[in-house]
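Moderator note: this is an archived Q&A kept for reference. The question asked for a predicted structure of one protein chain; the sequence and the answer are reproduced below.
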Amino acid sequence: MADLLKTDLASNSGENPLLAKLSPVVQDAIVTKTIYIRDTDDDGEFTDDYVEYKVRDKEDLRDTYKDGKGLVHLANPKKVIVNFDEIKDGEKYQVYKYSQNFQGWQKKEADAMEAETLLAMKSYLAEKLLATPVDLPTDFHDSDGRQIQEWDGALLSADTLYLLEAKHSMSEDKVKNIAARVEAFPNVLKESKHKRLAGKFSKVVGVACGTYFPDDGRKEAHRLGLMVIYPSGRRYSVDASKIDSDFAIER
């Protein structure tokens, strides 16, 4: 209690003693956030590894992107983050470089994600269902050559056709759109130059793939009958021997 009393005892005597002022001892609450920053190689190129950082304030955050302009999150890659309050504990980020070609980087990331999720799906079919998938065309055009539907991956396994759509940030609205496109696919196929494929499968399954795939989005995907693929480890990579730990596939 003595620590809480701040007064001059010498002047607090006599006929008119001073009132003691109670000042609670305040301990600064320091919030530490753990984030993961994409690593770079000796040439400054991004790798598939992420480095763990613990940040407590804006200065700590600035140290994580000292060679860049700020951090970007794949859920919103156009927003450059420089404030401590904007980062979220446990999330993965990438340093936004001053000389970065945003459009080129975004396309490269999208191409890599499509390839990795397609590999994850192939591995799942081969290891879990003991089926050998066959790649099919992903662009479907009508008789006049106009594109009427496009997918990021199309795999035929036994009598089932799997249609994959990959997004960096997957939302409930995007999930609903994928489900609607899957439902429309049989009619699309009838109008396309690939209508002969209709006799090769009896079931169509949509697969929603997302780097950032919130729980609500995954639940909605399951409700609509879609399979989902999303990262389950800290690394944005796919290894056929580690499919359960690096990429999670649910159906």
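Archived answer notes: The radius of gyration is 27 Å.
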